[in-house]
């Protein structure tokens, strides 16, 4: 049996022994992966935001159901805020949210309220510590921590208070939308006032009920926005003097929120403000969604309002009986 030469790879020794990527090939693979991630990430983020917007929309729908359940029981919408006159001559106020707790299946919280005492006395003082999940938009980056200051939970939905600003007419918390006040009611909600369905002459599908709003920042009473448990309605009443996400500043001239240059986030700082003896404020509807806000109408439907909505249309949507024509929006 003769000697046989060893078999060799016809492709040559270098190619036969190579089993790893070259640096160029590795870089090419990394580049392809990076391109795929860059292409897919916006789609993933968009899908997540779409889910959050749907959640936000459902929150507003639940609030709409609660408002209409209240209307079915009392034949009018819940008042935007309540001021109670006691025999002692003292006047105490209670927040809007308290009125609809039973309709939100939170009667256990409502039953803890003592309506014979000031909102800040007794068991009432502890109620604001309770977060209300349906009041929180998941797109808000602070939605994971609803207790925004040591005293109370915040929320992202406010009431349509019409095109007028909040005005403390007598220094005791009366509002520009109080019936009989110096500025007439023009929206479905006011101090000691909730509209009846028949009173909304503009049509419930053409009248705003609630809109998104940004939570305040910081602790204490400096930035009052979104303090849904507060008995002062200027914490959650939305003015249509400003369009959604307006670059114009929200403002507040009330002793507990003076000199705050941060009312206009994420835009340029608002000018500093000085408190007056009788405060006033105007808060725009704002959200962390891109391009607009979600709004609840008085018929219980929820719609999207773009930032670019015409101011006249936006203000027409906020009135209840001016019979002003609302166009496409």
Automatic annotation (TrEMBL):
Domain DUF1559: 45-311
UniProt keyword terms in alphabetical order: Membrane, Transmembrane, Transmembrane helix
Family matches, as InterPro entries: DUF1559 (IPR011453), N_methyl_site (IPR012902), Pilin-like (IPR045584), Pre_pil_HX9DG_C (IPR027558)
Chain ranges passing through the membrane: 20-44
One Pfam family cited in the UniProt record for this chain: N_methyl
Protein's recorded name: DUF1559 domain-containing protein
Biological source species: Caulifigura coniformis
């Amino acid at each position: 049996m003769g000697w046989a030469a060893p078999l060799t790879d016809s492709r040559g020794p270098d190619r036969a022994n190579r089993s790893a990527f070259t640096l160029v090939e590795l870089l090419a693979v990394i580049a392809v992966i990076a391109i795929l991630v860059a292409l897919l990430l916006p789609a993933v983020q968009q899908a997540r935001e779409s889910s959050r917007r749907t959640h936000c929309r459902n929150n507003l729908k639940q609030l709409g159901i609660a408002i209409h359940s209240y209307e079915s029981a009392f034949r009018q919408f819940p008042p935007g805020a309540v001021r109670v006159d006691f025999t002692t001559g003292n006047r105490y106020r209670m927040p809007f949210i308290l009125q609809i707790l039973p309709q939100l299946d939170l009667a256990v919280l409502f039953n803890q309220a003592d309506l014979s005492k000031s909102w800040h006395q007794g068991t009432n003082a502890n109620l604001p510590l309770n977060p209300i999940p349906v009041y929180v938009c998941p797109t808000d980056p602070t939605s994971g921590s609803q207790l925004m200051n040591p005293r109370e939970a915040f929320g992202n939905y406010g009431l349509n208070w019409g095109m007028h600003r909040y005005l403390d007419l007598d220094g005791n918390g009366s509002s520009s939308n109080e019936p009989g006040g110096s500025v007439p009611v023009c929206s479905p909600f006011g101090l000691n006032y909730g509209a009846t369905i028949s009173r909304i002459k503009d049509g419930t599908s053409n009248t705003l009920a609630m809109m998104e709003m940004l939570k305040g920042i910081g602790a204490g009473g400096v930035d009052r926005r979104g303090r849904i448990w507060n008995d002062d309605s200027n914490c959650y009443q939305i003015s249509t003097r400003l369009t959604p996400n307006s670059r114009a500043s929200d403002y507040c001239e009330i002793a507990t929120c003076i000199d705050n240059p941060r009312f206009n986030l994420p835009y340029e700082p608002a000018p500093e403000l000085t408190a007056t003896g009788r405060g006033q404020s105007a808060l725009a509807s704002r959200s962390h969604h891109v391009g607009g806000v979600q709004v609840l109408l008085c018929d219980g439907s929820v719609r999207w309002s773009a930032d670019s909505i015409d101011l006249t249309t936006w203000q027409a949507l906020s009135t209840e009986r001016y019979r002003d024509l609302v166009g496409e929006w």
